[in-house]
Design brief:
alpha+beta; 5-stranded mixed sheet; binds iron/sulfur cluster
Length: 187
């Protein structure tokens, strides 16, 4: 790597660390775990055509708020961050909240919401995007419905790529057919 490029990456990394430290310093919640794995099973329902759904993953940070609820924090280092409106319905955050409520981090835990903390944007401070607790929603089951719908879509014989606001910072952008670089995968 060219030296100037290496220095630029180093400067960017240092800025991200500064923003993370600043955010941590003002975060009133208690740290419970980092890089915490979870594995929950959503039982079969009529709405999911009798299909059970297994949700596995790992969260960047798990924290406890003043009300004793668990809050999942997802740290992002990409240049973009979803809008506040998109974060409220963000599928990844929704899946984390479902994992909390389904006992993925211990029995009887209640979700206090989930957050994206984006430290790689051009803003001077970390961009924090909040998804309110499921229990505060008029329909707390919305997140589980989203997870079940996603599982059904993944299990289908075809998978349709749809341009959306996450495309610019999607991890598989370069292999997606919509980018013009990826191609349909057939067997
Ligand atoms: S780039 Fe492709 S895979 Fe990624 S979010 Fe957009 S449509 Fe989905």
């Amino acid at each position: 790597m060219a030296r100037w490029l290496g220095q630029r990456e180093r400067d960017r990394a240092e800025k991200m660390v500064d923003k993370l430290l600043s955010w941590l310093g003002s975060n009133p919640r208690e740290q419970v775990a980092i890089e915490q794995e979870f594995d929950v099973r959503l039982g079969p329902t009529e709405a999911s055509a009798g299909r059970a759904v297994q949700v596995r993953g790992r969260v960047d940070r798990l924290e406890r708020d003043a009300k004793g609820r668990l809050v999942v924090v997802d740290l992002k280092t990409g240049a973009g961050a979803p809008s506040a409106e998109d974060a409220a319905a963000h599928p990844q955050l929704a899946a984390y909240q479902v994992a909390v409520e389904e006992g993925g981090f211990g029995p009887g835990e209640v979700s206090g919401g989930a957050e994206i903390v984006a430290v790689g944007t051009s803003h001077a401070a970390a961009a924090v995007r909040v998804q309110p607790p499921l229990g505060d929603s008029e329909d707390p089951a919305w997140a589980e419905g989203l997870v079940r719908d996603a599982a059904a879509a993944m299990a289908a014989s075809t998978f349709r790529a749809v341009v959306n606001d996450s495309c610019p910072y999607c991890a598989v952008n370069t292999s997606c057919p919509l980018s013009g670089k990826g191609r349909q995968v057939t067997r």
